[in-house]
Amino acid sequence: MRIGKYTYGFRKPENYVFKSKKGLNNSVVDEISWRKNEPSWMREFRQKSLAIFQRKQLPTWGADLSVINFDDIFYYIKPTKGNVSSWSDLPAEIKDTYDRIGIPEAEKRFLAGVSAQYESEVVYKSIQDTLRKKGVIFLDMDSGLREYGEIVKQYFGTIIPPGDNKFASLNSAVWSGGSFVYVPAGVHVELPLQAYFRINAANMGQFERTLIIAEEGSYVHYVEGCLPAGEQVSTRDQWVNIESVQPKDMIIGDDGKLHKVRALMTRRYHGRMLTICPISPYNSFQITPEHPVLTIKRSNVGRRIRYGWLSEVSSVSLLKQEPTYIPADKLERGDFIVFPKTQPTMISSLSDNDCALLGFYLAEGSTYIHKTLKQPVVSFSCGETEKKFIGDIYRLTEWKSGKKPMLIHDRSKHAVEVRVYSNSLREFVLKHCGKGAATKILSSEVMSLSGRKLELFLDSYWRGDGNVLKRVGSTLMRASTASERLAQQLQKLLSHIGVYASIQVRKAGKDTIEGRRIYRKTQYIVVYTPNKKWTKVRDAGNYFLVPIERIDTRPFDGPVFNLDVEACQSYLVRGFAVHNCTAPIYSTDSLHAAVVEIIVKPRARVRYTTIQNWSTNVFNLVTKRARVEEEGIMEWVDGNLGSKITMKYPSVYLMGRKARGEVLSIAYAGKNQHQDAGGKAIHIAPETSSQIISKSISHGGGRTSYRGLVQVYPNAKNVKSKVVCDALILDEKSRSDTYPTMKIDNKDVQIEHEATVSKIGDEQLFYLESRGLSKSLAQSMIVNGFIEPIVKELPLEYAVEMNRLIELQMEGSVG
Amino acid sequence: MKLTLLHLQAFVSDKQIIHNVSLTLQSGEIHAVMGPNGSGKSTLAYALMAHPSYRVKGKIILNNKEITKYSTEERAKRGIFMALQSPIAIPGVTVINLLRTSYQELHGSTSSPQVQNKRPIQNPLLSRRWKAAKITLSEFTDTLRDHAKALHIDESFLSRGINDGFSGGEKKKMEMLQALTLQPKFAIFDEIDTGLDVDALKTVAYGIESLKKKGVGILIITHYQRILKYLKPDYVHVLVDGKIVKSGKAVLAEKIESEGYDAYR
């Protein structure tokens, strides 16, 4: 069976005020500058840069970039009419995109500020008052240019001139967005400033430009990230809360079969939350408006509309129609959503009698250890008039336990108890049904029953717990249980025999039965009609089509969850099929060519952290450079996981005495990825020091290269530099290279260079396995141990994310 | 409990190293396998732990259950432990993290299905996982510290990468620490005494003695009888050219010390 097609890549519909033509020439550059209302010096700067770009050759070293077609790229897209000042003013789809990449609304309250780049322009920013009071400027680059033109003009392009390399010149010509940060002298910004970047359109270039100026004695940590970012979902035998699902768990997809979960994604969501209520109120589920749900629109299959009712539906066209994924927002009352029948996953070894006995136990049975006799007891309580019922239970328990049951007649309660002391029977019923009215739960063997055995089981259950309402031409089957999980399981079991049962919920509360006041637990009532003539629910073979009764909307602020499921890209929420949310999928490559310039004044300290996880068709070619003055400190922490090709070598130019620079770099290259990363330290002044630590991991045919430069000028005496580059290769197909360059023009230096290349050795694996670890656990431990020195430098949420991402990428590398 | 080797043969590629070794190790016994260089002592240890480089014929039986086909991990989970002669370093995987994870894998996951089949990287600090192992994190950590103290291992070693930059003696003591902490049912010590000074040797012998007291069956594989000065084995087997040529009580070890192996070739 194939339900629907994978049409949603989670690319938002493009809705732009202005989109430049593809390709690049003088008029495109002029138009960008004109649209942005820039001063003439910037337009001239762009034009000059364009000329350099057109002259410059692609680098002849590093990764192969010849496949980039510069004429097939949109260089500028303006998403909305000007910047907006508050979150709520943002267009809904842009907010959605932000939500999806996890801009945490609540986080903003404690983070110093968030600036997010949606395609080419920063459209939303928030700066806390505390920042403003300290005189810190944190703006998108376009606003920075507009509001602080003089400062920008003084520094822009001075650290990375357009002529530096082809991609720097390209960025200089067409840049858009990015951040402008200015920290006044002596100011310490304690919380990291964060920015998120994301490419949303196919063939889109992203050319953000970041300029950070840290005045004397100041401190700032800037974090840049692109991190892609949920109710109950069906697993093998039961529903579980979505947030408790973990990668590698098996859950049921829209085809009713088990699939492996690749990832659980979570994000904060602030906005409308929809509650979709199908027939069977218990199966109502909550969902964010853009989340696709497998649906047939009533409007596609409807016929005439009578009175004010919903339109009638042609069963023929309904069953012919193939359901498709439609955003929840577009759903209406009466539309049909899909409830796949789950397929039993194993052959049950239970016999007919077993099934009948378990049904009785489920309805009327209990088991306990007799306190004084210390004997295991299985007991069934029946009404005294139900002679046949008592007889059946008696025979089955005797057959199963091999012991003669006792019959205890309690005349005051008009009840007969069938009791047997048997440990084997107790274990049998515990295994398959559990115990306790509210906590009974069926074993996977029971859940895989089908056909006649299932009917036997359900029949005996119904004789106990259920009641049957016969009306003319129709029978209503009802069973009431205090166990929520049991109700879910019964609904699922019934789907095996082609019955869509509704679950109603009767809330707990005080109640009166025959004059006695009692407190009743919440009851779950499973209802169905076996011989319906007409029904609102249609059986389409492998799934039921269930109409929506009601859709409610409410505001929501909190975490939401989403699963990434292998093979079928979907999962079941309270039994209904919904789609994965995934990062945008583009068939064509995108280009990201950013420029980051940082000026670290005397005794100032700047740390710049990047975790990039672009999708694997992005060329990530970024120039990052910092100029460090006397006793200043610059730290680059650079994590490269995604992208097709990354070429990035954050640099420190140590211009003042005792300046210090550090580069920490992690690269992870999987299949079809090439991470060419490293760092540069240029010692111009004496007594300067630098450290470059690079860790790379390659697997599945991926390739990592370390490329680094340490240069010491003739006047730079007493320089210290240390370079450590370690590579870990996970399999034979993968590759790692090291290209260190040293240009030392001074004898009075202390240079250390260490490089190691290791494979996860059989001996390491054997050692950990001999300690009881599985191969995959052992591999993960080795990899995590390998990157640990860098991960511990990351802010906590990035460290967690980094470990999770690496773990995800590792999947399938075992073997 | 007992661990039985029945007509065990071991091959490296096509070369037969172990010919037909049979022996039975009972809980609480110490067996010493002694032999000259190249007699196949280490091969015997690796074969018992299912190292992938060794092909094995014959039978290995643990309590009437044949485990010859079991993988290294499965054997470990059934309570077999091996202290390696020269254990490999794994930078970044700290001793304490390895021991926590390992303890949970050995004592927690098999008995409790809810912690099985989960993501490969578990946070070993989660109480749920300790619950399955029937011990709390702090109890575990305390026990670990006590063992480390008894073996004269400085606590700072626990947060270092396992064997990363450790000296020969430190590595051996770290193997001993693992044996004590992980509570195996049978422990194999491959040349645990080589490269140890007298103090370290006594410490290791003390460790083996306390394992024996807890009922662990012990197989010591050694070239010299140095460690046997501090430990009294219940049985001594002489391994020459992959065959057990003589078995006897502790006095056999002294005899070898004075006469050498030549008498058995």
From TrEMBL, chain A:
Q: Does the keyword Chaperone apply?
A: no
One Pfam family matching this protein: SUFBD_core
- Asked if the record carries the keyword rRNA-binding, the reply is no
The Gene Ontology terms for molecular function here are: endonuclease activity
Any idea which UniProt keywords this protein has?
Answer: Autocatalytic cleavage, Protein splicing
From the UniProt record, give one GO term of the biological process aspect.
iron-sulfur cluster assembly
Q: Which residues form the DOD-type homing endonuclease domain?
A: 357-499
CDD domains linked to this entry = Hint (cd00081)
InterPro entries associated with the record: Fe-S_cluster_assembly_SufBD, Hint_dom_C, Hint_dom_N, Hint_dom_sf, Homing_endonucl, INTEIN, Intein_C, Intein_endonuc_central
What PROSITE patterns does the record point to? Answer: INTEIN_C_TER, INTEIN_ENDONUCLEASE, INTEIN_N_TER
The residues that cross the membrane are none
Family, as annotated = Belongs to the iron-sulfur cluster assembly SufBD family.
- This chain belongs to the protein called Fe-S cluster assembly protein SufB
Automatic annotation (TrEMBL), chain B:
Does Cell membrane appear among the keywords?
no
The residue ranges of the ABC transporter domain are 3-265
**Keywords linked to the UniProt accession:** ATP-binding, Nucleotide-binding
**CDD domains attached here?**
ABC_FeS_Assembly (cd03217)
Xref: Pfam families: ABC_tran
Question: What GO terms are given for molecular function?
Answer: ATP binding; ATP hydrolysis activity
Cleaved signal peptide residues? none
Q: Which InterPro entries match?
A: AAA+_ATPase, ABC_transporter-like_ATP-bd, ABC_transporter-like_CS, FeS-cluster_ATPase_SufC, P-loop_NTPase
Q: Cite the PANTHER family for this sequence.
A: ABC TRANSPORTER I FAMILY MEMBER 6, CHLOROPLASTIC (PTHR43204:SF1)
- Similarity comment: Belongs to the ABC transporter superfamily. Ycf16 family.
Protein name listed in UniProt: Fe-S cluster assembly ATPase SufC
